[in-house]
Amino acid sequence: MKRLLAFAPAAIFVLVLVGFAVGLRRDPTLLPSMMIGKPVPAFNLPPVRPSDALSGRGGLATDQLSGEPVMLNVFASWCVACRVEHPMLMRLKEQGVTIHGLDWKDEPADGAGWLAERGDPYARVGNDRTGRAGIDLGVSGVPETFVIDRKGRVRYRHVGAISVEDWNRKLEPLLARLRAES
Amino acid sequence: MAAEVGQFALILAFVLAMVQTVTPLWGAHRGDPVLMALGRTATILQAGFVILAFGCLAASYLLCDFSVALVAAHSHTLQPAVYRFAATWGSHEGSMLLWVLILAVYGAGVAIFGRTLRETLQARVLGVQGLIGVAFLGFLIFTSNPFLRLDPAPLEGTELNPLLQDPGLVMHPPMLYMGYVGFSVSFAFAIAALIEGRVDAAWARWVRPWVLAAWAPLTAGITLGSCWSYYVLGWGGWWFWDPVENASLMPWILGTALLHSALVLERRGALVTWTILLCILTFSLSLVGTFLVRSGILTSVHAFAVDPQRGIYILGIIALTTGVALALFGWRSPQLKTGALFAPLSREGGITLNNLFLTALAATVFLGTFSPVFVEILRGDKISVGPPYYARTFAPLAIPLLLISPFGPMLNWKRDELARLVRRLRVPAGIAAAVLLVALVTVGWRMMLTAGALALAAWLVAGALAILGRRWWAGRAELGRTIRATPIALYGLVMAHAGLGLLTLGIASVTAWESDKVLTMHPGDKVAFAGRTLTLDALGPVEGPNYQAHQARFLIEGRGGPYKLTSERRMYASSQTQTTIAGIHVSPAGNFYVSVGDVQDGGGVVVRLWDHPLIMWIWVGGFTMALGGLVSLSDRRLRLGAPSRVMVRSPAAATTAAAE
Fold it and tell me: ipTM, 2 decimals?
């Protein structure tokens, strides 16, 4: 019995190791293939900004994501990496890029405070308190950004904060291409 | 030129590390003193070449040799010299070189200071250290070569991430790595003990100083990191439960457990198998910490460039070292002689309880950090674990641990009586009760938890000081001599435990009383906040060596004032990144924290204000603990560690042992 027990740590370790190995093979930056080219899952999210609530403009709904190619940025007030990403989003807004926001697993008041304090880069922004819409989209963490084409289909998923390089190399060319599509 | 020398030195070190692995292990097996001596020489030479390689890389940085790819990617001629030097370990490759450097230096330490150690034990320790060296030098040379050249060389480099251009960050990684890598020594000792199939007093006496030598810098490193994130990131927080922060916390928690269990092993020969297991696990978690930052398995702000291939290599190293170690543990540990028995209520019993709590805490953090990975594999769901998880799981385990910690040093070895124990602690208990009462009256019943936490802090500090008090009171007839005879290690213990109390004080106050306010201000605006009046005096652009900034200057009047604060929003042109430099007024009573955001269209600026009562004590506590570790380490008895010298026990040494 004692002999067997002495091997318990080794056995547990093997399990953990298998988990790491599987986790490592799974490239977190790739979109699950089933989502590429598929329409954005249906959701209708309540507003985050108090002004949207008062004016009745509402939050963010799936049908608002078609028409022009746009970016959908998933963020949260509790998210550390989002703070790093935020100035970049503000700069993109200045350049005239349309970004919609999905405030994931967050209290509406916290999300509103975040926007008031740091600046608001979003055209429309919806609150996903339960995280349901995010899970349907295949969000694995925040920040994450989806590129959506004219027809409201997901074309690209970017995991993590957007850097200047990501924008120049991937996102901007992709958006330009999508705009050229009829 | 320097790069080629460095490259060559690294390859020589790699070969020497192989010699360091094979000869002493083989020599110890055969009982051949010549082979074992060769192992020692190889160890010292290997350290020499790694130091040379590191020096070459540092020189390339300082001289702005942009033909070295790594330098071009992380340095800039306008970057101040100290940050050019610190950039040496600011990249993945450079930080791995630092890792290997510290490993080699610790190895040389064992080779040089370990003369009094049993020769075969020393040889086996060096052999295991050599094997780790081979693995990491190989990793460095084959997957992350720091000396790659660029042709043609660029005229100017891309600077180091501006967030890292900070005095705190110059010291943070070296400290952290001294901790991580330091645990490789106790790991090597554990493996050597398992190979030999025996753990004796000499072994235990040797392991503890090495654990301390790793634990103290790790404590300082974590504290420094927390400090840095507080004043650099401009988020006003001091701990975020970020995966990488957790990665440093886990080895720290287990290392703390090891520090205590090794004490029991040293003094009483008990907890043998457990201590060995802790040695293995602590170092494994240090490796996981190294792995986590580089694999891209979890997303975090700290991460280096994601490269799955590197991740797989480090995962392989973890699999090999920990796997072999644990298999060896399974095979050999049942043969180890189990130690002396002890009553539940005894110093040994107290430390066992401490170890149970610490292990549970480490497991909690481990689950919180890695559960997203595992849940996704098992159920396909994506989950995220945030601060709420830790508030629910970490605190309920940490609080009882803090509550019992003053009991430990007051307990006698072997067995004790509850009534006597309680009597020994009546003064700190009285102080804690008084604090509780005063706190309840002043803050009211509704803040009962805060009052309790403040009393807990008082209990910890008073309990730690009572260790000295008890000893000095007992020898009060000849107080001067008693004080002189007090071992230095005891001061270390008192500092470490009191530091824990200060840490509790800081955390409790900030959690309960922190307040903040966000608003837009124009020059000349005044605002009242937390008993102070803040005026935005001026707002304008300033120019730094490698950045442009807009700076806001504030005048604060009222509580603790008047004083001036400035906060800046910096834009680093060459890397197109922004950082915020917060303006912080630091005082023991609390910090006042101002950080500015972007300038808005109307000429106003977003300002965030924080009032952080007593927050300084979090870091004072952390550094006090680290210092306590160093003070303990400086104790002669620990440093010598030669069995023969402790065998001769003077009466004074005997009373010392009884009182600790």
Answer: 0.73
